[in-house]
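Could you help me review a protein record that somebody else here produced? This is what I was given.
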Amino acid sequence: MLCIDESDLIAPFWSGTKRVPKPLEFDLHNPLHAEFIQAAANLRAYNYGIHGTSVDDKSMDAFVDALKDFTVAPFVPKRGVKVQVSEQDTEQEVTNPDDELVMKLLKELPPAESLKQQSLSVRPVEFEKDDDTNWHMQFITASSNCRAMNYSIPTADIHETRRIAGRIIPAIVTTTAMVTGLVCLELYKIIQKKPIEDYKNAFANLALPFFGFSEPIAAPKRKEGDHEFSLWDFIDVREGRDLTLQEFIDWFEHKFGWEVSMISAGVAVIYLAWWPAGKRQERLRGR
């Protein structure tokens, strides 16, 4: 019996729990959009040493005046873009229409020497969530809420966003560092082709704290004739072309010498050797 994994079946991408995103129409009179513009502009002003506005100043007059002649182009999905979906896709086959635009912008940039002559100083923004005057949390709140509106999920106010950020930052630093280190240790063992007894499963809870390790168990293997396999093995039968069910069965029996009695995908039965002849022949002609 050959079981085809259900994930191999083709299904609409926006199905199940996936939410279809929708573009936002920019409106400067929308408080969420206005806060995003204010916060982003003040953060960029800080980068270049320009005096920004106070978070207490909710006036949008300066922004309305600066953007009165600005029109946001409507969102249009890109066409002619080929996305790499498998390792078989070569880099030449995957094209990015933005590459030409990036090269054009790079050519338009002034030489680095000219920037030095103008004493241009750029400074990074060091994130601080507990400073109510630096526009950091305002920017994160506005940008995350815009993304939430893209996917029709609930938005959060600045206090809830600050609470989430306060939990994420230490968790990212400590947990990521620990997990990365443990994974790298196992990668070294793979490169050195160590036996399975040398590998370790790690269990860690930084809140307790608890750290435990165990040895992995090899997947049971089954041997049929000259072929040995486990649940982790798979057989690629595409051969660069579509196969009818009959061609697939013939290929399988010729390559392995096994008689195919049943083919299923998930809970769907595709073929049974003991079906009536008429039904079997109808399925065998399909792809």
Observations:
- The chain is about 40% helix and 10% strand.
